[in-house]
């Protein structure tokens, strides 16, 4: 808006009085200014909404990446624990003449470890008697067996595990040939 300042006078109390005279804008100029301000406001609103959306996307992306890193670390620990489970299973399979109380303690620890893994979504899957599936099994040996259909798993050499219904570790198996 255009304005023009006129003389300033001082009254009897010592207060200056300023007289203003305004040149009024034409209505077309006001409409133009209003439209420009609305356009600027819309642009700023759009920038603000884009910045909010970018920040929301950034937050989601960093959360996903953090979850992936945490899951990868968890996976490493679980795979190492599965090796310990394998050792427990081999120990229980091959120790017949050892103190029964000692073996009872070993079994308790084994079952606690299995329960801990199960609470994390880790579950073993059975393979013996089923057909070989390359997605779930790793064939270590092929044995001729007339009693079983070729491609059937006849022995589980190392159990396979699923983690939240996804393959964590394939089973190492012996397959009928």
What keywords describe this structure?
3-stranded mixed beta sheet, 27% strand, 177 residues, disordered N terminus, 2 helices, Nucleotide Exchange Factor Grpe, Chain A, domain 2, 8 strands, alpha+beta
Walk me through this protein's architecture.
With 177 residues, the protein is of the alpha+beta class. It has one domain (26-176): Nucleotide Exchange Factor Grpe, Chain A, domain 2. The protein has 2 helices and 8 strands, in the order E-E-H-H-E-E-E-E-E-E. The chain has helices at residues 27-94, 100-119, and strands at 2-10, 16-23, 122-125, 137-143, 153-158, 160-163, 166-169, 171-176. It has a 3-stranded antiparallel sheet. Helix 1 packs antiparallel against helix 2. It is elongated, with a radius of gyration of 39 Å. The protein starts with a strand and ends with a strand. Residues 1-8 and 17-22 have low confidence and may be disordered.
Helices, strands, pairings?
Blueprint: E1 2-10, E2 16-23, H1 27-94, H2 100-119, E3 122-125, E4 137-143, E5 153-158, E6 160-163, E7 166-169, E8 171-176
Parallel strand pairs: 4-8
Antiparallel strand pairs: 1-2, 3-6, 5-8, 6-7
Brief summary:
The protein has about 180 residues and is α+β, with helices and mostly antiparallel strands. The chain is built from two helices and eight strands. The protein has helices spanning about 25-95, 100-120; strands at about 1-10, 15-25, 120-125, 135-145, 155-160, 160-165, 165-170, 170-175.
């Amino acid at each position: 808006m255009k304005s023009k300042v006129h003389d300033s006078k001082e009254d009897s109390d010592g207060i200056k009085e300023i007289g203003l005279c305004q040149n009024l804008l034409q209505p077309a100029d006001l409409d133009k200014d209003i439209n420009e301000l609305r356009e600027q406001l819309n642009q700023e609103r759009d920038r603000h909404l884009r910045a909010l959306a970018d920040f929301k996307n950034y937050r989601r992306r960093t959360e996903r990446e953090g979850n992936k890193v945490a899951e990868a670390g968890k996976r490493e620990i679980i795979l190492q624990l599965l090796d310990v489970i394998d050792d427990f299973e081999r120990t229980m399979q091959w120790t017949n003449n050892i103190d029964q109380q000692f073996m009872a303690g070993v079994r308790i620890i084994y079952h606690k470890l299995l329960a801990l893994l199960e609470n994390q979504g880790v579950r073993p899957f059975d393979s013996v008697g089923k057909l070989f599936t390359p997605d779930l099994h790793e064939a270590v040996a092929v044995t001729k067996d007339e009693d079983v259909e070729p491609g059937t798993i006849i022995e589980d050499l190392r159990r396979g595990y699923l983690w939240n219904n996804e393959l964590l570790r394939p089973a190492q198996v012996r397959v009928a040939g």
